[in-house]
Amino acid sequence: MKVAIADDDPIVCSSLSTILTATGTADVIWTANDGQSALDCFQAVGGRPDVLLLDVQMPGMDGLEAAERIIALDPAARVLFLTTFADKEYISRALALGAKGYVIKQDVASVVPALQAVMAGQTVLGAEAVANLSLGKQEEQTRKDPSKPVPRRFQTLTDRECEIVTLVADGLDNQAIASRLCLSEGTVRNHISAILAKTNLANRTQLAVEWLSSQES
Hints:
This is Response regulator. Keywords: DNA-binding, Phosphoprotein. The chain is α/β, with parallel strands linked by helices and 217 residues long. The protein has two domains: 134 residues, Rossmann fold; 58 residues, Winged helix-like DNA-binding domain superfamily/Winged helix DNA-binding domain (Arc Repressor Mutant, subunit A, Orthogonal Bundle). It has a six-stranded parallel sheet, sandwiched between helices.
């Protein structure tokens, strides 16, 4: 794949380029150190990568504004945020803009699989990003209307399945969900497989993103 990197730290750009090239994951076609440069490079002839790795906070035009303009230019653009900021507001805005994922820099090992997942059409959220979105939802629960109808995608789920989806969105793994609900891990896996089939989602990350987004609307 062809990848571009926009980060205000040239060392980060260089290190990521080395990792992606050395592992045979991608060819890095350009790097930029601010949002305006990223936008300019994207608009240049041959400047549109398969995936753009984009930092949030950069001088001048930040990554969120750059992403908004890039996606407006090319709605099919795949933007994957890679940043040190796991702020709920940043994550929510990035996803609302149409970004394909949000990964925290500390988890460098997740960059390659995240790029591969985005290329496969998936939406990617790092564990810390999912946890922060979940905490935000918990804080808002008292302000939500409990009588709000269930979104159409989730209307066919049973009460137990909705309970499991909520725990997945809270960042719990199968073992923790099984312990919380006094079920076996196998039963939890079967429930999640059934939920994914009913909702036509590819994996638990997409499930968490869709569920959390539905609670905002």
